[in-house]
Amino acid sequence: xxxxxxxxxxxxxxxxxxxxxGFSLDIADGELVVLFGPSGCGKSTTVRLIAGLxxxxxxxxxxxxxxxxxxxxxxRGVAMVSQGSSLYxxxxxxxxxxxxxxxxxxxxxxxxxRVARTAEGLGIEGLLDRKPARLSGGERQxxxxxxxxxxxxxxxxxxxxxSDLDASLxxxxxxxxxxxxxxxxxxxxxxxxxxxxxxxxxxxxVVLSRGxxxxxxxxxxVYERPANRCVAGAVGSPVMNFFRGAVRGGRVQVAGSxxxxxxxxxxxxxxxxxxxxxxxxxSATGSLSxxxxxxxxxGESVDVVGDLGAVPVAARLPARDGITxxxxxxxxxxHVMAFEPGEFGARLFP
Length: 350
Ligand SMILES: Nc1ncnc2c1ncn2[C@@H]1O[C@H](COP(=O)(O)OP(=O)(O)OP(=O)(O)O)[C@@H](O)[C@H]1O
Ligand SMILES: [Mg+2]
Prior knowledge:
This protein is of the alpha+beta class. The chain has helices spanning 43-51, 93-103, 108-122, 137-149, 167-184, 195-201, 219-224, 229-234, and strands at 4-12, 18-27, 32-36, 58-63, 66-67, 78-82, 155-159, 187-192, 204-209, 212-217, 241-248, 251-254, 257-260, 270-275, 280-282, 288-297, 301-308, 311-318, 328-333, 337-339, 347-349. The longest helix has 18 residues, at 167-184. Magnesium ion binds at residues 43-44, 159.
C-alpha cells in the first residue's frame, strides 16, 4: 500500500520564495502521476517534500497512510532520481545498482536477479562493468534510473530523469519506465516540462502554475477540457491562440475579423476566446483574414504564423506548396473555447 497524500501543503523557502502555496493531491497506490508546468511552478519542490529532502512549512504529507513528518528520507520507502543524480564514481554500474540492496542485507541471489532484470528492462546490460567516468551523460542517466528502479520502493520519484537524452532515446526509455512501473505496480510521481512526455506517460496529469494546482485529470481530459486559460495555454503545441473580446450576436470581433462562439449563454460577456492552431483550417470563405509572417514545414503539416491586424495568429495546416510570407490567407476555426478574462480565467465554453 503506497498512496501518497498531500494536504494543504505550503513550502516557503528561507529568503521567502514560495515553492508551493497550499497544494492538495491524493495519489493512488500504483498510479503514475505526472507533474507538469513551467519552470519555477513547484514541481521539484513537490517531489523533494515527498522524498523528505525538504520539510513543508504547513500541511501534511502521508505515504501509505502514515504521516511522514520528521521521518528521514531513507525510512520513507521512496527512491528518487533527479536530473543531477550522481553515481558512486569508484563503483561499476553493477556495484552502483547492487549497493542500495546490499545495504539492506538482501540475499546475494536476489540482488543478482534484480540487478539483471532491471538492467535488461532499461537496456543497460552492456554497461554493467563500466565505471561512471567511462559513460556518456545519457548512459549515466540511465544507470541512475536503474539504481532507483532496482530498489522496488513503495514510491518512485523521478524529477526530469530523461533530460540529458536525445528524443528517440527518451521515447524508448519512457516506454521502458512505464513497463517497469506497471510490472512492479509501484506508485510513480514523474516530473517533466516536456508535454509530449507528460501526455504519453501519465495516468493523471497534474498541472501546476506558481505553486498552485491548476488541474489534475487524465491527459485527454486536460487537453480537451482544460480547467482554465493557464492550463489551456500549457498543454498543446503550438500554444493555443487567445483573443479578448465581447460576445455580440454569437461572435467575437478580432481586428476586423470575427470568431463564432456557439453558446447563447455568453451573449454580451467579455471573454477570452481560445483556438488551438490545429483547429484552424484554410477556407476561401474563412472569417479570419491573416497575412502570413512565418512558415515552418514539419513534414505532413506546416506551422504558419500570421498577423490579424496587430494580433499574431498561429495555425497548423496540412502542408501544401505556395504558402509564402506576405501572402493573405483566410482561415476558419473548427473548434473554439471561451474563458473568463485573466491569466487563470475559468473555461466557460464548451
Ligand atoms: N532551495 C531553494 N531556496 C529558495 N527558493 C527555492 C529553492 N528551491 C526552489 N525555490 C523556489 O521555489 C519555486 C519553485 O521551485 P521548484 O524548484 O519547485 O520549481 P520547478 O517547477 O521544479 O522548476 P524547474 O522546471 O525549473 O525545475 C521557485 O520560485 C524557486 O525559485
Ligand atoms: Mg525542477
